[in-house]
Amino acid sequence: MTTFIQLHLLTAYPAANLNRDDTGAPKTVVLGGATRLRVSSQSLKRAWRTSAHFEQALAGHIGIRSGRIAREAATILIEKGIEEKKAIEWAAKIADYLGKAKNDKKPKDPLTNAETEQLVHISPAEFDARKSAGPSTGRRKARAKRGRSRFVT
Q: Where are stretches of biased composition, namely Basic residues (predicted)?
């Protein structure tokens, strides 16, 4: 049998209502006979992600969290000379590949369906590599000409 120590720690937070329930009241929990504010791990993680210390420690290598990555890909494709209609079509396929793509029947903006329902995370290096990639070669290039490309580079 192994020996281990399990620690239960209370952390003091300032009286800022970090979490509220559906009625707008601060979320609380009774712990040790006292009512205390309840802080979710989600709010703590967001505070860490947005802190200056976190950004400094990662030296600017913080990824992008967005549902509009495929929309940005469409913009890049159009800037590189791809026909707008094709770029929008490809961006919608990219969005569908990244997650559940929006599926508006009559979108006001043609790039609406090039967005995902959930956030997608991509590193700056991945985004820059896709942004600076030249035209594809070989079989992919031939498929792209026929309009059957699965991936856009």
A: 138-153
